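USER:
I would value a second opinion on how I read folds in token form. Give me a protein, with the fold worked out from its sequence. Write it directly below this note and I will take it from there.

ASSISTANT:
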Amino acid sequence: MKRFLPHVVAFLVVAIWGTTFVFTKLLLLGGLTAAQIFILRFIIAYILLLSYCLARGIRWLADSWRDELLMVALGVTGGSLYFLTENSSMNYTTTTNTSIIVSLCPLFASAFIGFFYKSERLSRLQTFGTLMAAAGVIVVVMNGHFVLRLSPLGDTLAFAACLCWAFYSLLMIPANKRYDTVFVTRKVFFYGLLSMIPYLIVHPEMNIHLLFSKPHLAWNLLFLGCVASMLCFLAWNWALKQLGAVVVTNYVYLNPVTTIVFAWLLLAEEITPWFILGTVLILLGMYLADRHSHIRVPHCRRTGVRRLRSE
């Protein structure tokens, strides 16, 4: 049960994130830009989390300036830079390309984490499993139409978003080791917003009046801020702390699956045999990738990096 609950939490977070495309799309159609949506949802999340921290007694700064810089890096890689590159990529390339590239971030996360933390390196079986899950993602997203239209700028932005989330997963290992989940998550929101100031200087308009003239937009934004941002980031970071970055990041493979299931339930979109095949590959691959991940490696030596347990 100790390991089962974090798996359930990670799955639920990915399932919720898979539904956010509908709410984001409605906000975009309502007149908000991708950057405005990110800023407003992070403001909501930060205010809620800050209020909670003030009520319980708040800790403002990390133990050292190096740790504070670590929090800055988390806010940029998991917040502003990730969302800007991902959302901007869809202006220059297809949604299919973006979905495939971004959903493959567990491959890069596993490689980065394995390079710095020997105890987190994948075995051959785990490597085979994560490659199988990646293949499943491609099958699900392509849905039988195996044609990719390359767009250098758009695909590069999507790849940048993929790398951002991989680095975020890597940086969460030392952050979770030294600080509690609420503190780290609050810092992610704060520095994610702070790093958006240069963008706001160039594009100061926020179109907040649209939220008052179109109340349904405000409800969509509240869902993104309260649930998809605050609650989900808290839950995701907690699961990272419990299971390790490699195991939890593999749940990103399920993102396109939950998106399609949500579209099937609410939009009556078709579930195809390709979707079923891809889903089976993803689930089987994730199972293999998680094999032996709980075993403690007795010894690890790597210059400048302490060994961490994967539990």
Summary: DSSP finds 14 helices and no strands in the chain.
